[in-house]
């Protein structure tokens, strides 16, 4: 089997998972989602991107959408020779359905050092009040 892989891929080590990740931009945007008593917090790794290259939206169906595009490699340099281009390029999109307690009109986003943090505040859950019913 290893000789077959060597024939197909040369001396490079072939990893099927890494091959899939490099072909699919959405897999290159790892995102953590944590919930606190006050908010849902989404943390996405977007190394090398500026905040102007990323778009954060919430649609009417309570779906948080993070999208953007990694610009293509600039191959116009006359005295440049690329030996490898392995970093993923192209458009990306992640979508998350928000729970009913999400305050979609108060979403905030910030980005620093290639890490996007989206905070979606939660509505306070009203505890049901006890109502005493008079027995007649």
From TrEMBL:
The keyword Ribonucleoprotein does not apply. It comes from the Eukaryota. Residues 22-136 form the SHSP domain. Keywords: Stress response. It holds the Pfam family HSP20. PROSITE patterns: SHSP. Belongs to the small heat shock protein (HSP20) family. This is SHSP domain-containing protein.
């Amino acid at each position: 089997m290893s000789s077959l892989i060597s024939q197909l891929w040369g001396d490079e080590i072939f990893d099927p998972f890494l091959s899939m990740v490099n072909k699919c931009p959405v897999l290159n945007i790892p995102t953590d989602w944590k919930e606190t008593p006050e908010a849902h917090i989404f943390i996405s790794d977007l190394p090398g991107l500026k905040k102007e290259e990323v778009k954060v939206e919430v649609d009417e169906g309570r779906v948080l959408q993070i999208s953007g595009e990694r610009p293509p490699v600039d191959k116009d340099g006359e005295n440049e020779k690329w030996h490898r281009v392995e970093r993923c390029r192209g458009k990306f999109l992640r979508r998350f359905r928000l729970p009913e307690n999400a305050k979609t009109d108060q979403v905030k986003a910030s980005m620093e050092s290639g890490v996007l943090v989206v905070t979606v505040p939660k509505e306070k859950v009203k505890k049901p009040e006890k109502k005493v019913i008079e027995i007649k």
